[in-house]
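Researcher: I'd like a structural prediction for the single chain below. Treat it as a standalone chain; there are no partners to consider.
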Amino acid sequence: MTKLFTIATPQRAYFGEKDYQQLQVVTRLVRDLNLPIEVVGCPIVREPDGLALSSRNVYLTPEERPRATALAHALREAKRLVAAGEQDASRVEAAMAEILRATPGVAIEYAAIVDATSLEPLPTIRPPARALVAARLGRVRLIDNMAVLDSLDSGNTQGFSGRQDSA
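Model: Treating it as a single chain, here is the predicted structure.
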């Protein structure tokens, strides 16, 4: 990535929040190396049923497609629990995992609550916090995420602002 940024010398680099971990790694790289680039996070686009848009979705069978919404359901439950005052990350992670486990054909890779900036696991939920999930449905690996507690306003659970300055 550094080589690409050095050769192309962009003023801005756009990354989707869909792969939130990648967005955070690139943001950190730009900051740590003092690259003159603004990293811009682009919000996740979702289907009406909540499934995050992804090129991988075309590989879901007709039976798997409705089951894939379990990821979005798990994330919404995490957000609901945190908004209701739950601060124990392990309880929220267990609730997300239960939703995924209850869905036939879903093989959980992880359901985690992390610091939205460092991506470190959070034992106690504090801002900024993000819920992350990954699971397999047949041959398809799906990932998704959602802000559960924003750093600017602990009552705001609407998510990532969409802009990360390099300085």
